[in-house]
From TrEMBL:
Source superkingdom: Bacteria
Protein name stated in the entry: CBASS cGAMP-activated phospholipase
Keyword Signal annotated: no
Stored InterPro entries: Acyl_Trfase/lysoPLipase, PNPLA_dom, Teg/CotR/CapV-like
Active site residues per record: 51, 179
Pfam families: Patatin
NCBIfam families xref list: CBASS_lipase
Motif DGA/G positions after renumbering to this chain: 179-181
Length: 337
């Protein structure tokens, strides 16, 4: 690559959602940081993430070591996914959002810091259920982005990770929010649009590294009732129906995003993910945080990071130096609006 081409290169890091499977993503990023000896955000000009990927994206943009998130999920995941009485998920979500909110509010993670405290540009998709519209929280990297930087990081993180049928809706600023994974579980295309529309980047200069969460592919059981009722979708437990639909939605979205980014960017798109074999799939789920899940997720991430670090395309991403970001408001204001 010529010096001129390298200087024009604009890199995006896109992190998928997937609940506890985000431990896989966090471990990959921690290994990358260990390899380069620097925060992973210093290699990317824009970071995006949804759900657990959104939590990771915010942490990365704050230059919180990814290893700290690995330890949080590995050591405290059981608290986040501790089931509560919910009448099989009919009366309320099976998991409370209180433990996750408390963990993210610790001073070692986000504390009371605001989105405007991020050191690198980041965008986080959510759904504003009060308005029925998609919403994207953004750092103040454009003069029009005047309000989001005043939001607490914890609130943005909780909003993007409020997965339907798993956690309650999250409320702040008198609006109710649910998981952005319903429309952008793999947010790479959103970030490409952001780079073009808000940061003035040419498509030819954009490079995307997308990191998945070993997502399961949801497929039909041909022996099941095909009438489209609750039993068809969820089996004997009606509460499984929304989980199945949500799982299918995020799985298909990831496949679509992967296809579109590969088609748009060709060799400027690099996907990091692993397929689940039939045996490992039994140990891993969005809400499973036991020792078997940890073993699969951490083990797979360790092997995948080793392969990636030896890959020339991946090394090109890790050797890039992101330019100094421009912020118009917030703690890191360096440009007058």
């Amino acid at each position: 690559m010529t010096t001129a081409a390298a200087s024009q290169r604009f890199q995006i890091l896109a992190l998928s959602g997937g609940g506890y499977r985000g431990l896989y993503t966090a471990k990959l990023l921690a290994d990358f940081e260990d390899e380069i000896g620097a925060p992973i955000a210093t290699r990317f000009d824009l970071v995006t993430g949804t759900s657990i990927g959104g939590i990771l994206a915010l942490a990365i943009a704050m230059e919180i070591p990814a290893q700290r998130i690995v330890e949080l999920l590995a050591n405290r995941g059981g608290e986040i996914f501790k089931r509560r009485w919910s009448l099989a998920g009919i009366c309320r979500a099976p998991f409370s959002s209180v433990p996750l909110q408390a963990l993210l509010g610790d001073d070692k993670i986000f504390g009371d810091q605001l989105l405007g405290s991020c050191k690198h540009p980041v965008i986080i998709p959510v759904i504003n259920y009060s308005t029925g519209r998609p919403q994207i929280f953004k750092t103040p990297h454009h003069p029009d982005f005047k309000r989001d930087h005043k939001c607490r990081l914890v609130d943005v993180a909780m909003a993007t990770s409020a997965a339907p049928a798993y956690f309650p809706r999250y409320t702040f600023n008198n609006n109710q929010y649910v998981d952005g994974g319903l429309y952008a579980n793999a947010p790479g295309m959103l970030a490409v649009h952001e780079a073009q529309a808000s940061l003035g980047q040419s498509t030819d200069h954009i490079h995307v590294m997308a990191v998945g969460t070993m997502s399961s592919k949801f497929t039909v059981n041909p022996r099941r009732n095909r009438e489209g009722g609750t039993y068809d979708w969820g089996g004997v437990n009606p509460a499984n129906m929304p989980k199945r639909v949500f799982g299918l939605s995020i799985s298909v979205q990831e496949a679509l995003s992967d296809f579109m980014l590969a088609h748009l960017l060709s060799n400027r798109y690099f996907l990091v993910d692993d397929d689940l074999t039939d045996q490992r799939a039994r140990a891993v789920a969005l809400d499973r945080a036991d020792s078997a899940a940890k073993e699969v997720l951490l083990g797979a991430a360790t092997e995948r990071s080793k392969i990636c670090i030896g890959n020339e395309d991946c090394r090109s991403f890790l050797s890039h130096r992101a330019g100094a970001p421009t912020f118009y408001y917030g703690a890191h204001t360096n440009q007058a609006s």
